[in-house]
Amino acid sequence: MFTLRAYLRTALAVALLVVPGAAGGEARAADTILTGKVVATLTRATLVPFASIVEEVLVKPGDKVAKGAPLLRCRLHEDAERALQREMYNGAGTEDMDGRLLDLQRQLAQTQAQSNKARQLAASGLGSRQAGERLAEDVHSLQKRIELLRRSITKAENNFALRLKELSGHFGTEIREGEQLPEKWDLTAPIDGHVLSLDSSLHPGYLLAAGSAPIPVGQLDPVLIQVPVYEAEVSGIKEGDAVEVEIPSLQNKQFRGTVNEVSWVSSDMTVANPSYYTVELLVPNPDLELKPGFKAVARFKGSR
C-alpha cells in the first residue's frame, strides 16, 4: 500500500537528485553577468588661458599625441591682447612700493640719528631716558615696516616672474617684461595619449572663450570598464579577480580583464531604493579596438 510516509520519502529522494550539491555534492553559483561602459584610463584637457580666435586645427579624433604636442593654433582676441600687453608693460607693479620703501628708509636714517643723539644725552645726564626709549621704539617700528614692504615687493616680483614663465609656456618662446607679445600661440596636449574628440564648433575663425577645454586627450591602453553591481552580488567580487568581457559592437569579441577597484559607497543611499556599487575593470587595449563609450558585457565567475 502506497502510504503518505512512502510518498514523502520518494519526493525527498527526487529533490536531492535535482538540486546541485544537496546530497553532499559541491554547489556552484551562477556567473554574474553585468553591463557597463568603456572609459579612458585617464582623460585631460588643456584649458584655453585667454580668449582667442582659432587659426588652424592641427589634429583629428584618434590621433596619437605626445605631451606638449600642438593641438590647435590660435591668435589672441583683440581684448585679450590689449589686456596682456598692458600687463607686460606694467610689469610687477612695484613702483609705488619702491617709492614708499625709499621714504621709510629715509625716515629710519633720521630716527636712528635722533635716537643715537638722545642716548648720548641721556648717558651724560643732559637728556631724558624716556625720550631715548621712545625713539628706539620708533626705530624698531620703522625697521619692521621696511621688512614687511620688502617682502611685499619680493612677492610681487616673484608672482610676475611666474606669470612670465606661464606665458612663455603658452607662446612657446621666452616672454620678457615690456616686450611685444607674439600674435599667435598653440594649445598643447596635457598628457601622452590619443585625441578623444573635437568641439563641434572648432573651425578657423571660431572664438574660444577663456577657460574652455575644446580638445580632450585620453589614455586608451589599458581602458576602464565601469559596471554597477547589485548589493547582494558585490560581496563576491574582489580586486584582482579575472573577468571575461564581451563587446557587442565588435561582434561579441571577448577580452580578458581584472577587477581594479570596488567602490565602498552605494551610488544611491535612499533607503527605499536598491543599492548598486560601481566595480571598475581594467582591460588591456593594445590595438585600440575598445573605444570610450562602447557597451561591455562583463562575466564574473560564480565559483569562489
**Secondary structural class:** alpha+beta
Order of helices and strands: HEEEEHHHEEEEHEEEE
- Percent helix: 25-40%
Quickly count the helices.
Answer: 5
Spatial separation of the terminal alpha carbons? 47 Å
Question: What's the level 1 CATH class of the largest domain?
Answer: Mainly Beta
Could you characterize what this model shows?
- It is a single chain.
- With 304 residues, the protein is an alpha+beta fold.
- It folds into 3 domains: 29-41 and 218-300, Beta Barrel (Elongation Factor Tu (Ef-tu), domain 3), CATH 2.40.30; 47-89 and 178-214, RNA polymerase II/Efflux pump adaptor protein, barrel-sandwich hybrid domain (OB fold (Dihydrolipoamide Acetyltransferase, E2P), Beta Barrel); 92-170.
- The chain is built from 5 helices and 12 strands.
- It has helices at 4-18, 78-90, 95-123, 129-171, 231-234; strands at 32-45, 52-57, 64-65, 70-76, 184-188, 193-195, 207-208, 216-230, 242-247, 253-262, 276-283, 295-300.
- The chain has a 6-stranded antiparallel β-barrel with strand order 1-8-11-10-9-12.
- α3 (95-123) packs antiparallel against α4 (129-171).
- Mean pLDDT is 83; it is low at 1-28.
Q: What secondary-structure arrangement, pairings included, does this model have?
A:
Blueprint: H1 4-18, E1 32-45, E2 52-57, E3 64-65, E4 70-76, H2 78-90, H3 95-123, H4 129-171, E5 184-188, E6 193-195, E7 207-208, E8 216-230, H5 231-234, E9 242-247, E10 253-262, E11 276-283, E12 295-300
Antiparallel strand pairs: 1-8, 1-12, 2-4, 2-7, 3-6, 4-5, 6-8, 8-11, 9-10, 9-12, 10-11
